[in-house]
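Tokens help. Consider this.
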Amino acid sequence: MSFKENFIAWWHGTPLPRDRNDGPTDDAAADSDSAASGPQAAAPSDQLEASRIELLQKLWGDGLVFPGGDEHLMKLVAPFGLNPAFSVAEFGAGLGGGGQRVADEYGAWVNGYEFDPELASHAEERTERLGLQRKAPVNYVDPDSLSIRENAFHCAYSIGCFFTLANKSHVLRMIEKGLHPGGQFAFTDYVVAEEGRDDPALALWREAELPTPHPWSPKRYDAELTNMNLDVRIAEDASEAHQRAILAGWAALVEELRPGGVSRRTTLLMIEETEKWVRRVAALRAGGLRYYRFYVTKPTQ
């Protein structure tokens, strides 16, 4: 089966055609090589050759590492009422594409904080290449030692990254400290449903994630944020829209594939990335995992 056929089968719940510990390289490469021998096969020089970082951007957009693209991002920050006088912080800034879009759209100044060293390194190179070091810089920060000065920004946002952090409480405290009085904070994250903690699909999802996820429940978020004297105005289950965004990104990529049109190495990366997202969607469909949007404000006094 080609990658495209495998993707369609996996998306509809067919078990993965390999054991993760039995050397997937040869199996996946055989699929790619077999497809390459067909009458419409792409020449090696025309094959898609992408690194993990490049693959993420092919899926989600230039400089982005999350499903939903500009529509998801702009919906998240829309309540802020941004303008060029605003300073903004983005946590889990990824490759910096989100901060770039917010800065371009509203003229605001966006400082990005990324918790993954690899993503941060690529983001720093990208912002320098595009001349964004002042308007939308991205820097690596250790979540456990993150330090933010008081009243550092008017608004903050994050898209789907806090579930990877073991010490979320510290990061949230720093965000609260950094917010101006009357400031706004919006974020999305994967959370666990109270009634779905023992769901087998949730356990399979955890196995596929690196780093090991540490999701909270919506109630835990509400309690923690309230204890920090923040007002939780919106806690919305956005799981259905998130699933549609995931499928749209993968479907658009798969639609472009031709027989033999993906290199051996890139095929392996795509299989690994697909497995992760298929397990995420399976856990979302089972109900144990949810994707929530939160909108939070800091009192003026």
In short: The chain is about 45% helix and 15% strand. Confidence is low (pLDDT under 50) at residues 18-43. The longest strand covers residues 179-192.
